[in-house]
């Protein structure tokens, strides 16, 4: 595994993300954070800023957290965004800002792993919101994986993939495939 993580300097960002995605196939449940403490702490702060960006639908904050690389992406139940402009507009401004008048994302049990200039975080979350159109309450729970790249100026988010919680009953088996 260690040899797999050594990559040529300056290699494509997408290749680095693919290497990390392959690492996700390992059973990492229950593991704690790993890597240099300063890097883990920096990413933990970015996760908090990400939650604040969801809570406030603040596109300017989104642009501080995310890399401006054209390769950045965001996979969510309603779609797949490519590039910072799509992420800022479609996820944060439209989905979060236009759809909900109030939002609160609570991050739970983040686990952060740093490998050189690439890292990933995985966590569970609770999301509570109020629909703008009718004031109806929304409450969901899910899980999320985030991939980070260390750029000049610090760590930046390059990919998010989130989904709902796994189905618990056998009658739900096969849903989501």
Q: What would you note in describing this structure?
A:
With 177 residues, the protein is of the alpha+beta class. It has a single domain (40-166), classed as Nuclear Transport Factor 2, Chain: A (Roll). 32% of the residues lie in helices and 36% in strands. The chain has five helices and six strands, in the order ααααββαββββ. The chain has helices at residues 2-5, 13-23, 37-56, 59-65, 84-98, and strands at 73-76, 79-82, 100-115, 118-131, 137-151, 154-164. The protein has a six-stranded mixed β-sheet. A hairpin with a 2-residue loop joins strand 1 (73-76) and strand 2. Helix 3 packs antiparallel against helix 4. The longest helix has 20 residues, at 37-56. 23% of the residues are buried.
Structural class: alpha+beta
CATH topology tier name: Nuclear Transport Factor 2, Chain: A
Uncertain segments are 1-10, 14-30
Helix content: 25-40%
Which CATH architecture?
Answer: Roll
Task: Write a short abstract of this structure.
It is built from 5 helices and 6 strands, in the order ααααββαββββ. The radius of gyration is 17 Å and the shape is globular. The protein has a single domain, classed as Nuclear Transport Factor 2, Chain: A (Roll), CATH 3.10.450.50.
């Amino acid at each position: 595994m260690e040899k797999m993580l050594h990559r040529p300097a300056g290699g494509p960002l997408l290749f680095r993300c693919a290497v990390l995605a392959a690492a996700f196939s390992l059973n990492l449940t229950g593991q704690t954070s790993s890597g240099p403490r300063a890097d883990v702490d920096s990413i933990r702060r970015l996760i908090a800023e990400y939650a604040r960006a969801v809570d406030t639908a603040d596109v300017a904050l989104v642009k501080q957290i995310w890399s401006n690389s054209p390769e950045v992406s965001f996979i969510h139940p309603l779609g797949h965004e490519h590039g910072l402009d799509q992420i800022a507009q479609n996820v944060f401004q439209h989905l979060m800002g236009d759809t909900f008048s109030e939002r609160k994302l609570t991050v739970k049990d983040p686990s952060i792993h740093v490998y050189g200039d690439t890292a990933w975080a995985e966590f569970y979350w609770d999301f509570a919101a109020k629909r703008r159109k009718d004031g109806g309450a929304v409450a969901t729970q899910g899980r999320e994986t985030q991939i980070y790249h260390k750029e000049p100026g610090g760590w930046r988010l390059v990919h998010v993939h989130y989904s709902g919680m796994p189905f618990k009953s056998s009658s739900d088996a096969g849903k989501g495939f």
